Amino acid sequence: MATQVASGDVVALTDSAIASVSGNRALWNEDLRPCTTEEHTWPGVKFASLWIGMSICLPTYSMASGMIALGMNWWESVLTILVGSLIVLIPILLVSHAGTKFGIPYPVFARLWFGSRGAHIPALARAVIAAGWFGINCWFGGLALDAILGRIVPGWEAIAWHLGISFTVFWLINVAVATRGPQAIGKLAVFAAPTLAVSAIVLLVWAGASAGGFGTILSAPAKIHGLAFWATFYPSVIGVIAFWATLALNIPDYTRYAKTQKGQTMGQFLSMPLTMALFSFIGIAVTSATVILYGQPLWNPVDLILKFPTFIVVIAGIVVILSSVTINVGANVMAPARAFENLSPRRINFALGAIMAGVLALAMQPWYVMAQFSNYIFTWLGTYGVLLGPFDGIAIADYWLVRSRRLDLLQLYTMDGRYDYSRGFNLKAVYALLIGWGIALLGLVIPPLYFLWSGGWLFGLLGGMFSYWLMMKGEKSVLSDREYEALTMQAAPALAVGAKADTSTLG
User: Structure pTM?
Assistant: First the structure.
């Protein structure tokens, strides 16, 4: 009997299937359940807004400046960011397809390849990284808020622990916004994207007009050449990839709402790489102008803001805070909130998961990560890239190579079902994960193979992907064409499938 209905680009459970499984509170709640057909409402422009809002942020600005500090010139830095963004967009789009087609969030998608209990492994790994980013962006925002308060509040800097107070206030703002849920995050992105884009352009125009050009940094030659350049370029590209490797895993948390595959694909393709490259250029160009205007390069936009009259400081400060909140709640809350929720769907909802993510962020010590650019680009981005690469590879191999985009949606919510594997764990996925990590770790213990570690995301992804694909050949949980067709009926064009739901808390 058919348990799912295909309507255009999306597949949803039938009403009878929902009724049969919705009582299983160990695997199902309102946030984790698959979207109904009518809940696929996000057009391509909403995904473009999401990426623009997340890409125009202080970490992007710092990443470009960090590459120049390492010896690149301006166009080499921008090109590095563009190349890395285009590369990571490939796994992002491959994984996006599953979210759009089946309307499932990332932890449920992970059940497909790690098992109903094993899914906690990739979900919690992603959660820890997201919490780290949450803390980093709160640190950026706290620094901005502290600097702005120091300008507009007399005696602010004389207050003991003023920076700690600013950081805590900004952290509370982020947590409060995050608890509003993913639909609110989408609305925030639609508002923030044009605001941040216009602000970035205004900043560029001001810098060019005030400085009479962009000065010394745009004309400065590179300080590294030949092998030295490639030795820096390679891990820097991997660092850019790792910047968004997190979203390459949990992008289904957003694409599950997409109207069509074409809409979400084009919305992402036309926004993220170009926005990353253009905003990086704006940061570099504006910094170049500050050399002419103030006699020194001001890489931190907050330092630049403080050069203006108080009224401008307030307006610009609000924009900086908006950018930090947008990327934080957009990129760094969804995954850990869902992961914690997946641990106990009966007891943990999205709001509580978001609060838990905020608490975990404090334990990640963002002030240490941002103490030096080397910590940021090589230690932080590089290490978590190694951690996440095999998960990306396993997800892509399972959905595209092993199952050919066919799955039994009902079984993802069924205890001891098709995707339960061995007591809830797919040991083949665990082995593939260890192989992916092992390949990268060879670079740490064998000096001539260090490129395996510095490019750990790429080699971990490839190792995890191909080992998983080979081990899963002949896997009994894979649906044949005939089985998939028996499970899936085709909806009439006007048919609305699935029960209505309270989307105020739906993930």
Answer: 0.86
Tell me the helix, strand and coil percentages in the chain, rounded to 5: 70, 5, 25
Distance CA 452, CA 170 (A): 38
**What is the reported pLDDT for 400?**
98
Q: Is 372 helix (H, G, I), strand (E, B) or coil?
A: coil
- The string of pLDDT tens digits covering residues 248-282 is 998 999 999 999 999 999 999 999 999 999 999 88
Listing DSSP states for 419-449 in one string gives T-TBTTB-HHHHHHHHHHHHHHHHHHHSGGG
Place of tokens 């109207």: 259
Q: What angle do CA 195, 381, 395 make, to 5 degrees?
A: 90
pLDDT reading at 507 higher than 90: no
d(CA 169, CA 52): 25
Give me the residue label for tokens 């850019």: 240
Question: Phi/psi zone of residue 126: left (φ > 0), alpha (ψ -120 to 50 degrees), beta?
Answer: alpha
Backbone angles phi, psi at 422, to 5 degrees: -100, 95
Q: Which of 457, 445, 434 is nearest to 386 (CA)?
A: 457
Instruction: Say which residue, 259 or 333, is predicted with more confidence.
Output: 259
Give the three-class secondary structure for 142. helix
Residues 6+ apart with CB under 8 A from 476: none
C-alpha triplet 461, 268, 382: angle, nearest 5°: 35
**Lowest mean pLDDT: which of 92-96, 259-263, 383-387, 496-500?**
496-500
Phi, psi of 258 (to 5 degrees): -65, 145
User: Encoding tokens for residue 389?
Assistant: 């690469």
Q: What is the pLDDT of residue 262?
A: 97
Q: Determine the Cα–Cα distance for residues 317 and 213; give it in Å rounded to an integer.
A: 25
Which domains are present in the chain? 4-490 (1.10.4160.10)
